């Protein structure tokens, strides 16, 4: 399990940031900003190397205080020939807190302004990947928080420049080890440059053995030499074979991701999943046609009055918990950006309390949080008294307090996203897609009468329960199940009205348009669209378990209801990525251990974001960002094992590994 230990800002006798854990300084005594420019930028030929490029990707080992990033960002801003989008991906095992970053950068006028923006956007320090968008999304910092040896093999990107900036090899040998160099070679493009301050023989030999060509160059700050180099022509070959290359290169060659123009996509379904895909594509300059069969966006599963953003805790920090945590934090950042940091009226970051139930052990829950190593600004235990104070109502039990918990109206979110892209996203509503087929390199969507609704090289399915049919694959390849859910809305007196999200046997939200909404029921294969009185009572009885004194039977009279139908996968994870060719044989059929996901052919340019279950509000934005990153050739915002966990081909792969044949598209 990956547990972070944050760094603390300490200075040596000369005022240089100092790391007692490694008995080393964070940068040369000649100055961190100058070292960033003279060693890492100049050593990689920057800013000239990114001139005229659509995208440029820097991969760094050791974020530290972020000085290299800030210097690179500043140079990018000052360069009239800068690349269209700068991606900076950095691995850090001991990240600083935002307050330390702010205090340090404020000391240097060259870094103060950008450093303050970085500190404002700094994430909650949890393990894994965190994507931070700056400069209106044109500068993207992806922080990989954790051990470099464990995380680098999990990254999916193609790096143009490498900054090797760990502590001294003698102080931190793991950062300069063969596994790290091998991982860097897999992630580098052929000819990618590298630079580092050290010329230790072990580093030179290790880089050479990994396939880099390195040489000494004049050093900086009293050092005679530094090291520069290039990745060999075979760099990244394993990455391409294993699917680390961009989806555009590997799956959808009809899309020119390097050109930065002429990129267009159909997105089928204008619920929160489809709108989130359109959002991330439009931010990259794509032209998106959003097709919706209802009269407007968010009319299906996204039509609830409101819902909750939430994270999960599991003792083994499993893939579902990690994916949900990453998505929860990502959605929080996206909401803040849409609302410019101000309350938007259609969402509120009010916090969430996961209430303990009768018989639950407070100490046991506290031990779980401690074992996971999660910071208190992500989750902490609160007793009944503190929980009641946070919620503004008397609660029967304490529980887990998530300060970043929120409620959200999906329809208003979708409207805000569409309003932010008036020129890039075109909504076609009240025109249901009856068929989707590929003709001449384009996907064509047609209505029931055969009329063409839209055509583009890329199509993304976000159509809820209709995914398999539109994808042209058997239902068992994309096995979406329909699950009915009913919400109950009631008016409560002020003393019983919570101001936070509460969850326990069920959940409830603070007032939305005057009503507290509680739910939700769970009815597999239930198609009844009208609310049921018995299920209202069930929701209110669960509410009464969290709010003592609630009279469930009395509140049933006059309550409001909402019924929605969730699209649920058997493994409780969404479908995010490229749709498989159900009838095609896997590549590398003789591979030891059987086929892998990367061996399964995909339908060119066809993607899916679906199976969001009851967590669409939490999952959708990260799913959309992942698909857009795949299509545009950007670094992916998820680790490799999480990408596998949500890969749309996973059910097909499981069938093949059980000895079955690849499903034929004509199978029932």
List keywords for this structure.
alpha/beta, 3 domains, 668 residues, 20 helices, 8-stranded mixed beta sheet, D-Amino Acid Oxidase, Chain A, domain 2, FAD/NAD(P)-binding domain, 31 strands, disordered C terminus, 9-stranded mixed beta sheet, 29% helix, Rossmann fold
Notes on the protein architecture:
The chain has 20 helices and 31 strands. With 668 residues, the protein is an alpha/beta fold. The chain has three domains: 18-241, 3-Layer(aba) Sandwich (Rossmann fold); 247-300 and 411-480 and 571-657, FAD/NAD(P)-binding domain, CATH 3.50.50; 352-403 and 481-568, D-Amino Acid Oxidase, subunit A, domain 2 (D-Amino Acid Oxidase, Chain A, domain 2, 2-Layer Sandwich), CATH 3.30.9. Strands 15, 16, 17, 24, 25, 26, 27, 28 and 29 form a nine-stranded mixed sheet that branches. Strands 5-6-4-3-7-8-10-9 form an eight-stranded mixed sheet, with helices on both faces. Residues 244-261 and 662-668 have low confidence and may be disordered.
List the helices and strands and how they pair.
Elements: E1 18-19, E2 24-25, H1 32-43, E3 55-61, H2 67-78, E4 85-92, H3 98-105, H4 109-121, E5 128-134, E6 139-145, H5 148-151, E7 159-164, H6 178-187, E8 188-196, H7 201-209, E9 212-218, E10 225-231, H8 237-241, H9 247-250, E11 264-268, H10 272-283, E12 287-291, E13 307-309, H11 319-338, E14 347-348, E15 352-355, H12 362-372, E16 380-382, H13 384-391, E17 399-402, E18 406-408, H14 410-420, E19 425-428, E20 435-439, E21 442-446, E22 452-456, E23 458-461, H15 467-471, E24 481-490, E25 501-503, E26 507-508, E27 516-519, E28 523-524, H16 533-546, H17 552-556, E29 560-568, E30 575-580, E31 602-610, H18 616-632, H19 640-646, H20 650-657
Parallel strand pairs: 3-4, 3-7, 4-6, 7-8, 11-12, 11-23, 12-19, 15-25, 23-31
Antiparallel strand pairs: 1-2, 5-6, 8-10, 9-10, 13-18, 14-18, 15-17, 16-17, 20-21, 21-22, 24-27, 24-28, 24-29, 25-26, 26-27, 30-31
């Amino acid at each position: 399990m990956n547990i972070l230990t944050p760094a603390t800002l300490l200075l040596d006798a000369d005022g240089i940031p100092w790391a007692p854990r490694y008995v080393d300084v964070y940068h040369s005594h000649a100055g961190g900003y100058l070292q960033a420019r003279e060693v890492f930028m100049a050593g990689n030929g920057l800013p000239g190397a990114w001139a005229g490029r659509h995208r440029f990707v820097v991969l760094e080992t050791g974020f530290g205080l972020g000085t290299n990033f800030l210097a690179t960002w500043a140079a990018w801003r000052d360069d009239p020939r800068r690349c269209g989008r700068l991606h900076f991906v950095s691995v850090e095992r001991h990240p600083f807190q935002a307050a330390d970053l702010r205090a340090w950068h404020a000391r240097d006028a060259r870094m103060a302004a950008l450093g303050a923006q970085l500190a404002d956007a700094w994430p909650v320090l949890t393990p894994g990947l965190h994507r931070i968008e700056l400069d209106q999304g044109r500068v993207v910092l992806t922080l990989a928080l954790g051990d470099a040896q464990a995380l680098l093999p999990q990254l999916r990107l193609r790096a143009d420049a490498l900054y090797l900036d760990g502590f001294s090899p003698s102080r931190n040998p793991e950062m300069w080890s063969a596994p790290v160099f091998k991982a860097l070679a897999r992630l580098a493009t052929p000819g990618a440059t590298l630079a580092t301050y050290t010329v230790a023989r072990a580093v030179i030999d290790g880089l050479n053995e990994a396939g880099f060509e390195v040489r000494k160059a004049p050093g900086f700050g009293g050092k005679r030499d530094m090291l520069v180099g290039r990745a060999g022509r075979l760099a990244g070959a394993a990455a391409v074979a294993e699917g680390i290359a961009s989806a555009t290169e590997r799956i959808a060659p009809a899309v020119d991701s390097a050109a930065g123009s002429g990129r267009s996509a159909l997105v089928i379904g204008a619920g929160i999943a489809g709108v989130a895909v359109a959002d991330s594509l439009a931010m990259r300059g794509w032209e998106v046609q959003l097709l919706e069969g209802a009269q407007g966006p968010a009319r299906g599963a996204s039509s609830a009055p409101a819902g909750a953003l939430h994270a999960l805790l599991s003792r083994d920090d499993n893939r579902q918990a990690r994916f949900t945590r990453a998505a929860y934090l990502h959605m929080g950042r996206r909401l803040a950006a849409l609302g410019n940091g101000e309350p938007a009226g259609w969402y509120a970051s009010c916090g969430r309390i996961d209430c303990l139930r009768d018989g639950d052990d407070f100490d046991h829950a506290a031990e779980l949080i401690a074992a996971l190593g999660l910071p208190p600004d992500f989750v902490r235990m609160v007793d009944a008294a503190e929980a009641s104070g946070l919620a503004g109502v008397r609660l029967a039990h304490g529980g887990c307090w998530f300060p970043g918990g929120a409620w959200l109206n999906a329809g208003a979110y979708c409207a805000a996203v569409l309003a932010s892209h008036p020129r890039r996203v075109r909504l076609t509503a009240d025109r249901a897609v009856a068929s989707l087929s590929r003709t001449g390199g384009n996907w064509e969507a047609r209505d029931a009468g055969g009329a063409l609704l839209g055509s583009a090289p890329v199509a993304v399915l976000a159509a809820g329960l209709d995914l398999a049919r539109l994808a042209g694959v058997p239902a068992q390849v994309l096995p979406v199940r329909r699950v009915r859910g009913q919400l109950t809305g009631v008016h409560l007196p002020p003393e019983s009205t919570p101001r936070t999200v509460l969850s326990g046997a069920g959940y409830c939200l603070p007032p939305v348009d005057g009503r507290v909404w509680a739910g939700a029921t769970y009815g597999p294969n239930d198609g009844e669209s009208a609310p049921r009185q018995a299920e209202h009572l069930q929701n209110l009885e669960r509410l009464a378990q969290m709010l003592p004194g609630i009279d469930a039977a009395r509140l049933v009279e006059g309550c409001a209801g909402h019924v929605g139908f969730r699209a649920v996968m058997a493994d409780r994870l969404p479908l995010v990525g490229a749709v498989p060719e159900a009838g095609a044989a896997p590549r590398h059929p003789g591979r030891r251990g059987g086929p892998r996901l990367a061996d399964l052919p995909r339908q060119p340019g066809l993607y899916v974001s679906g199976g969001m279950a009851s967590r669409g509000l939490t999952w959708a934005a990260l799913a959309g960002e992942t698909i857009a990153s795949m299509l545009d050739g950007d670094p992916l915002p998820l680790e490799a094992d999480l990408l596998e966990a949500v890969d749309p081909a996973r059910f097909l792969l499981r069938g093949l590994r059980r000895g079955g044949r690849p499903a034929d598209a004509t199978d029932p």
